[in-house]
Amino acid sequence: MTSVARGALRPVAAVLFDMDGVLVFSEEAWFGVYNDTLALFGHPAITRRAFDAIYGNGTKADRDTYMPERTLEEVDAAYGRFFLEHLDGLRANPEAAPLLVELRRRRVKTAVATNTQHSLAREILARTGLLSLVDAVACADEAGAGKPDPAVVRLAASRLGVGLEEVLFVGDSRYDREAAVAAPVRFAGYRMPGDLGAAGTLGTLAGLLERIGAD
Questions:
Q1: Structural domain boundaries in the chain
Q2: By the number of CB atoms within 10 A of the CB, which of 11, 27, 108, 151 ranks highest?
Q3: What is the pTM of this model?
């Protein structure tokens, strides 16, 4: 099943990107940040396998799973504090900047739709040199809910001033795909199945857009 009925497809006017795992490789950094946060609040560390099972699901899910006694504000504050200590585990996807530049050349709008809190998301994008290459950033704490809820996808589209039928969302997790279906928008899976198949690299996305009529 696809996110938007095939008969309703329009050319892609905007591409939304998940941040962590798509534009930015940050799994190692977040693994350290999460265990530092657990230690701060008196909880034991979790394994990488346990972390991978929740990675990308947003602060609320993180909190609910291992530290339900804490507020979202406390967890976000800890994330912001500890992330600065794990910057060596952060790197931009080398294919991200060339693709964003190409989309801008084609006059296709771009935005980040992420579960990461807005202050930290903008810091990560700035440090990896990607913030100036996207037209908007939308985060779960601004939208009121994280993926798989569609709120952040809809917020990103709204900030770009485009209709959902003109949007393609690129993500790498089931949370991204579920948010796309619920929004609804088309979904391109990065290293996972999507409406347009699986894109093994971001570099293949330009070709996918040509198939569905992006300008």
A1: 7-25+91-211, 27-89
A2: 108
A3: 0.87
